[in-house]
Structures are given as structure tokens and as C-alpha cells.
Amino acid sequence: MKSTPLFLALVLSLTLAACGQDKPAETAAVAPADTATTAGPPMPMDPSQGVAGHVEAVADAGAGESGHDLYAAKCISCHGGSGEGLAGNPKLAGLTRAVIQSRLADYRDGKKLGPKTPIMAAMAKPLTDAQIAALASYLGE
To answer: In 3-state terms, what secondary structure has residue 113?
Structure first.
């Protein structure tokens, strides 16, 4: 009988430890844009190709950031190197430029689009129109 409480304590400890590992990723996704870019190195991505296989990486004339740079800094950790969507996050590959641009602008402007709105609104809020256009050109088909 003594082994049952010990076994339950072990199971509870492992469960709590496993649950605690998800918290840093959630915190990083909701962090302000300036801290989210320093959370860790982005996954490698070929800068000559966009998510949809486009060769163009449209530069943002205002900030000097390309769609690739913005994607690597702000999007890749949740949406993946090929826009495949990681850990239950939406797939971006296959979306049109117009859809991406419209959704990012809506998130930035505070419109509720679904269950991921709080995270996406925080990520999109600091984006300029030019940065949104650069991301849409880089990602969209």
C-alpha cells in the first residue's frame, strides 16, 4: 500500500513538469514585438524563396525590412519555415496576398477573427501598412 501514494506523487510530478514546459512558448508568442524577436534564433529559411516558393522578397522601403526578415522575426516560430503551421497554429501556405494583407490589417485594427485573435493582434499591432504589404507579398500566392 505504501507504493500507491509514492506512485501517485510521481505521476503528479511528471504531469506538472510536462505542463510547465508549454508556458515559455505561450509567453513568447504574446510578448511585445521588440522582445519576441530576441527570444531565440529563428529557424533557418532560404531568403531567396518565400513561403509559397516565390523568389521575390519585397523590401519595406520605410524600415528596410523584407517580408522574409519580418516573417523570420515575427511569424516563423508559430507558422513554420514553410508556412505549414506548427503546434496547431494555422497554415499560411496557399493563402493569397490579398487574404494575408486583409487579415493582418484586421488583427492590427482589433477585429476578432477567431480563437487566435489575442496572439495575432499583439503580433500585428506594431506593423505598419508597408510591413503588412511586405509580409503579404512574401507569403501570398
So the answer is: coil
The mean pLDDT of the chain is 73
Distance between CA atoms of residues 98 and 141, nearest Å: 9
The amino acid occupying position 19 is C
CA–CA distance, 95 with 83 (Å, rounded to integer):
10
- Four-residue CA torsion sign, 72, 24, 15, 89: negative
CA-based max dimension of the chain = 71
Q: Which domains does the chain have, with CATH numbers?
A: 31-139 (1.10.760.10)
What is the CA 24 to chain-centroid distance, rounded?
A: 14
Residue 115 CB neighbour total at 10 angstroms = 7
| Chain centroid to CA 93 | 13
Q: Are 42 and 71 in contact (CB under 8 A)?
A: no
**Coil/strand/helix, residue 9:** helix
Q: Over its length of 141 residues, how does the chain's per-residue pLDDT go in tens digits?
A: 566 666 666 655 655 555 554 444 444 444 444 444 444 444 444 444 444 433 233 333 345 589 999 999 999 999 999 999 999 999 999 999 999 999 999 999 999 999 999 999 999 999 999 999 999 999 998
